[in-house]
Amino acid sequence: MDPLIITCAPVGAEISLDETPYLPYTPKLLGETARAVREAGGSIIHVHCRNDDGTNTHSVERFREAYDAIRASSDLIVQFSTGGAIGMTPEERASVLELRPEMATLTCGSVNFGDDIFENSFPIMRGILKKMNEFGVRPELEIFDKGHLANARRLAKEGLLAFPQHADFVLGVPGGLEATAQNLCQLVDDLPEGCTWSVAGVGRQQLAMAMVAIAMGGHVRVGLEDNLYYSKGRLARNEELVARVARVAEEFGRPVATPDQARGLLGLRSLAGISMQAAN
Ligand code: KMH
Ligand code: ZN
Q: What's the whole-model pTM score?
């Protein structure tokens, strides 16, 4: 099996500052987290940004600061969110692509999201994907529900996407597909030939889904965006969640991938060839 790619999603858009003291909500904290996540065995960091008061922002300037802080402290693959937060406009969500991160998420369909709707109509997906293509950003297909892979295939038929791609199954969002081994197996079976995949189990299912993915040869996403706790009643730090997965993977005979090994597995250029053109 390939080395294990661990993605850390350290912030997200849903956690408020009073739920945990460990949310890296400023660029400086994101830089520190990136260093710790890299040391713990992570290869990708999935980025959302907050203002200093903890509210969500998708400002290009804030993402630029976050990118610079992460790059100054680590060689992690930087993956921007284009999902943002509920209520952001599609234009806002896509705006940060002009910074040309190596990767960015593309949610492949609308989904109930708690009491809200996370809206990703075909026009919204096409708009984001066109910008990704324009700026040379590699998508990570975010799959919250069974029909989302069919949507991705439709976008491929339209010529906006070429398979194989990397998919991340986000399982256990209230309103989306539940985090079970059976659902994960069905999604993996349904993937187009040659795709790589990871799983992000939400809440208590994060560790269980990670274990299943390690055994199946997939990859893993952990982090406070999806799960606040290390164990019942004990709040987690992002790097602890990464370190635990790395430790177990080692026992399975799957050492973690370095960021450059992950770039190789995902077909990305090595870090030496990457520049933040918009930042210069
Ligand atoms: N915050 C959610 C509404 C992504 O980052 O691409 C969407 C999300 C997905 O987190
Ligand atoms: Zn996200």
A: 0.97
